[in-house]
Amino acid sequence: MAINKVAVIGAGVMGAAIAAQLTNAGVPVYLLDIVPEQATNRNIVAETAIQKLLKAEPAAFMHKNNARLITPGNIEDHLSLLADVDWVIEAIVEKPQVKQALYKKLVAVCHKDCVISSNTSTLPLSVLVDGLPESFAAQFMITHFFNPPRYMRLLELVTSPKTRPELISTVQHFADIALGKNCVLCKDTPGFIANRIGIFWLQCGILEAIELGLTVEQADNIIAAPFGIPKTGIFGLLDLIGLDLIPPILSSMTRALPAEDAFQPISQLPTRIQDMIAAGLTGRKGKGGFYRLNAERIKESI
Ligand code: NAI
To answer: Which CATH topology does 6-186 take?
Structure first.
């Protein structure tokens, strides 16, 4: 089995960047999303994704001239394109019902050897396949890319006993050779491996910074270099991943972990961050976050 063509569904923070990485690896990629009702230009998804990528990550299209990113836009208009792809990567909103509604459409169009995977941060595989046909479970797995995909080599693979072994090895081989990833096979446990640790760490950092009355800048200076983590620190990382992703992650971890788990007492998102999300301040993808567009915000206490 070989991966000759891929479709990425969801042209947001992750989907667009995953599609760019695949493109740079020379693989034809369809990048699909939902086009807002009011949009007059049906190709708005493609154009917006490419413009954002070129602005945020000028090196994302290293082989711009050879790029084979095929971005027709609205998924509803292009479902039939998925009939000849070998791997569909779902990177849409972190809501199980929305993801499942999409999988039902994919079941109807994808061929039986096509890998269908989710880029979910924390939703259990067992929840994502629940109620879907056995044949879907056989071709489904979680491929959890990290942000930004072109720098982050880790790829978590979560499979179930129903996932066909030859599809798992096809993805592992492709990710290793074509994308330069280090694949780690994970059990279907809450947050898999990296987010089980990472979300705990992130929440502890936010709560500690609030308790100590630190400014955003102070907190990130303390948590970044001295701990040997990238200079984004906690709040720069929130800007990068998107603040709006944190509530669904926290609630999926809260639901999945036992009541006595050490994560439960720290699982509430602070009001300040909830207010920022409500105001559209979701980080780089929104109207700015802690660092962007408002330099004063990083001098304020959290
Ligand atoms: P995002 O909010 O930036 O983008 C989601 C995209 O999906 C939007 O463009 C939206 O229009 C589209 N969409 C929503 N419903 C759709 C549907 N039914 N059909 C087609 N497109 C639809 O989200 P982001 O941050 O890229 O996250 C996507 C997935 O990747 C989530 O499952 C998230 O947990 C996961 N993830 C996110 C990371 C991050 O750093 N942001 C890191 C690793 C995983």
So the answer is: Rossmann fold (3.40.50)
